[in-house]
Amino acid sequence: MTVTARGLADTTTLNNGVKMPWLGLGVWRVEEGSQVEQSVAAAIANGYRSIDTAAVYGNEAGVGKAVRESGVKREELFITTKVWNADQGFDSTLRAHEASLEKLGLDYVDLYLVHWPVKGKYRETWKALVKLYEEKRVRAIGVSNHHIHHLDDIINDTGVVPAVNQVEYHPLLSQVELLSYCKSKGIQMEAWSPLMQGNNLDHPTLKELATKHGKSTAQIVLRWDLQHGVVTIPKSTKEARIKENADVFDFELSAEDMGKIDAMNENRRFGADPDNFNF
């Protein structure tokens, strides 16, 4: 698949008609206060329109402050946050959503996600998100770190298909079956830690393609995401790197290039397995 995105303003259309930018800024492990405020401000100033945070990141207040002070109209931005595991369950999820809005200082978020499929809770949590969506309190709802069987559960329970599934996705964990399933259901897949948390960016295949295209290995990986139809949210706190991560719209990987990166897959996770986590 070749994505026709030509810049940071370009979007994919979610299954409810809402438009979501193909590339955004992730703020996992970015400190609350000046660090996250400066990162978000730099991203927005350089054309980013999508910011991804979560309750557990502890930096929603800083994200919201930077958004409000950015000078960009709220409706031109796409803000994502997530309900944390300890807050899952029906009523507690509704309260968690309110708490996130209060911290962000925003009237709404564009995308609200179930952060992990907590056993015995994720199905009720999803029902709470459906309620929020039906009451027009969020523009779109989705999940994070959900395997196919988790997705089947929540779709069968409610008849509501998530707009997004945000998962660990990178050349060493290409999740071919999950991506195929999501495309078949109209679920937009989104990559967290697309740059493998800084691991293996010196892989010979990536270096070869970086030389061929005159790009960094990170840019090669992000372009690979986009050409597989996967939204990507690389994290950085440095303005130069934030700019570099977005400079992926002026070249295209060939089918042969894509195949070489696909062949790097080792089903290797740097994060937890959604079927086996204890937090």
What does this structure look like?
This protein has ten helices and ten strands. The strands form two sheets. An eight-stranded parallel beta sheet has the order 3-4-5-6-7-8-9-10. Strand 7, helix 5 and strand 8 form a beta-alpha-beta unit. Helix 2 crosses helix 3. It is globular, with a radius of gyration of 18 Å. Pfam families: Aldo_ket_red. This is Aldo/keto reductase. Keywords: NADP, Oxidoreductase.
Summed up, the helix count is 10
Largest sheet geometry: 8 strands, parallel
Q: Within the CATH hierarchy, at the fold level, what is the topology?
A: TIM Barrel
Per DSSP E runs of 2 or more residues, the count of β-strands stands at 10
The level of helicity is 25-40%
CATH architecture: Alpha-Beta Barrel
The largest beta-sheet arranges its strands as 3-4-5-6-7-8-9-10
The outline comes out as globular
Strand content: 15-25%
Instruction: Give the CA-CA distance, first to last residue.
Output: 36 Å
CATH superfamily: NADP-dependent oxidoreductase domain
Radius of gyration: 18 Å
What's the assembly state of these chains? single chain
How many distinct folded domains?
Answer: 1
The average pLDDT value, as a whole number, equals 96
Low-confidence stretches: none
Domain NADP-dependent oxidoreductase: 23-266
Binding site for substrate: 115
Family: Belongs to the aldo/keto reductase family.
Protein name: Aldo/keto reductase
Features:
279 residues, TIM Barrel, two-stranded antiparallel ribbon, oxidoreductase activity, acting on the CH-OH group of donors, NAD or NADP as acceptor, AKR5G
